[in-house]
Structures are given as structure tokens and as C-alpha cells.
Amino acid sequence: MSKKIRPSLKDYLRTGVVRPEADSLSKEMDSNEAAAPPPSSDSQESFLSLLSPQDRETWQPILRAGVKVCSLPLDIVSAREDFRTADRNRYTFYILNKKGEPLRSPRTSVQIREPFELFLKWDETGVLELYAPRTDSPTPSQPEEARG
Question: Is the pTM above the cut of 0.85?
């Protein structure tokens, strides 16, 4: 069974580069450092397009290092419960209020409320879960005729 490739943050603060971490790839990565990064998936590109320039500079190398990105529908109640019970050493949560704004970290579960663009759950094992609010439900500003 092959070893899972995970992002390595070794020397990240000094170099600003996130590299894949695997014993078998370490020599190969040193020789191919100038090689082009692997193509990003559609979900990664759409995620990066929503971020502010500062956040894009942070997340782009992380996503190229082999992070698994999962796009899921948002359930506010489940997200709040997950936030309350999650291991804070393993998971980091972010909220993107509007396209182009900086990501912010919620401190309490009541800060997880709509309206926002994305709710992010970063797992230190290299998994990024993107939760987007459902767009098929009517908004409170819509008239009753449109709701029903």
C-alpha cells in the first residue's frame, strides 16, 4: 500500500513554499523543483477565485501540494455542532463573508450564520471541506408568492 502524500509545512515560514511530503518523493521533488505544478481541479480554481489576494497567496501553494478538496452543501445546525465538538488541534474553521474579502476565523458557534459565501473546515491531514449555503431555498426578502 502506498504512503499518502501530505503537504509539508517544513520551512514554510522561511521560504513560503508548501511541498508534498513523502519519503519516496523527496529526492524526486528536489530534482523537479522547477517543474510546473499539477493542474488544479475546478473546485480549487473556483475556491481561489473567491478569495482575497492575500488569502489566495496563502492557499494556492497549499492546494497545489496535494490537498483533497471536498465541496458540500451547508447545514448551519450541523456546522455549528461540528465547530463546538471538533478537535481544535486538528481542525481550523474559516468563514468567507463576501467574494474578495479576507477569510475570518469564527470564535464561537453563533458566528456561523448566513449570509456568507463559504464555510471552510481545514483538516491538518490535508483535507479542505468547503460548505456553501444552498441557493435553492427562498430568501426571507422574497415575497410569499415566490416561496410557495
Answer: no
Q: Which helix (H) or strand (E) holds 60?
A: helix 53-64
- Other CB atoms within 10 Å distance of the CB of residue 7: 20
Cell of 26: 523527496
Q: How big is the CA angle at 101 (ends 72 and 55), to the nearest 5 degrees?
A: 75
**Could you give the CA distance from residue 52 to residue 55 in angstroms, rounded to a whole number?**
5
Q: Contacts from 21-30 at CB under 8 Å and sequence distance 24+?
A: none
State how far the Cα of 55 lies from the Cα of 57, in Å rounded to an integer: 5
pLDDT per residue over 78-99, tens digit each? 999 999 999 999 999 999 999 9
Closest CA to 69 of 105, 38, 98, 44: 44
Please state, as a whole number, how many other Cβ atoms lie within 10 Å of the Cβ of residue 67: 21
Report the candidate in 37, 44, 74, 43 with the shortest Cα–Cα distance to residue 59: 44
**C-alpha cell of residue 1:** 500500500
Confirm if 123 and 115 have CB atoms less than 8 A apart.
no
